[in-house]
Amino acid sequence: MSKKNDRNTKGKIITAAWDLFYEQGYEFTTIEEIIEKSGTSKGSFYHYFEGKDALLGSLSYIFDEEYARLQDTFTADMTSFDKLLYLNRKLFSMIENRIDIELLTRLYSTQLVTKGEKHLLDSKRLYYKLLRNIVTEGQEKKELTDSLTVKEIVKLYALCERALIYDWCLCGGEYSLCTHAKTVLPMLLSQIRL
């Protein structure tokens, strides 16, 4: 199987699973339903995942799919700071509308205690590559400070996003993540903007 087909099959399974988790709840979604919705096979499912619990760590894949789509929607008049806020607004909107908060909470808690891979921190993810590109461009265009390194700014941005999501989960989604971030994130990142 080619790498592209391999990625497509895995992606279909992950997307189908998270859609079902949102629609029906994690507990009420079966592996058989995931296989059926993804149009794949039982063999393919077990090739990529040991079971349903293994899918909890795959949310970063869903996020990166969204980032891949979003990177082509930047407009020419956007500054680098605008691009960062735009990515955040779009991702948080997706989270509110497609990701079950209980599963998001579970993902964050497993990332805190796991001894294995911490998918959300994987610097090879498209998320981090895209952020590095935006920050590098912003520094070159004198839109973002150069008193911090690209790595430091990316880490600050990611930390702010995780903090906002974590607080939203702690509060049980009692407020709009998008609305709150629209107000708070520019304040948290104000020091990087020139």
Structure description:
- By secondary structure, the chain is mostly helical.
- It has 2 domains: 1-49, Arc Repressor Mutant, subunit A (Orthogonal Bundle); 58-192, Tetracycline Repressor, domain 2, CATH 1.10.357.
- Helix content is 66%, strand content 0%.
- The chain contains 9 helices and no strands.
- Helix 1 crosses helix 2, helix 5 runs antiparallel to helix 7 and helix 8 (150-170) runs antiparallel to helix 9 (177-188).
- The protein is globular, with a radius of gyration of 18 Å.
- The model has no long low-confidence stretch (mean pLDDT 91).
N-C termini distance: 48 Å
Percentage of residues in strands: under 5%
Instruction: Tell me roughly what share of residues is in helical segments.
Output: 55-70%
> Number of domains in the coordinates?
2
Shape: globular
Which CATH first-tier class of the largest domain would you pick? Answer: Mainly Alpha
CATH superfamily of the largest domain: Tetracycline Repressor, domain 2
Q: What name does the CATH topology of the largest domain carry?
A: Tetracycline Repressor, domain 2
In DSSP terms (H or I, runs of 4 or more residues), the helix count works out at 9
- The number of distinct β-strands equals 0
The main pleated sheet reads as: none
Mean pLDDT over the residues: 91
The stretches of 5 or more residues where confidence is low (pLDDT under 50) are none
Radius of gyration: 18 Å
Structural class: mainly alpha
CATH architecture of the largest domain: Orthogonal Bundle
Helix and strand succession? HHHHHHHHH
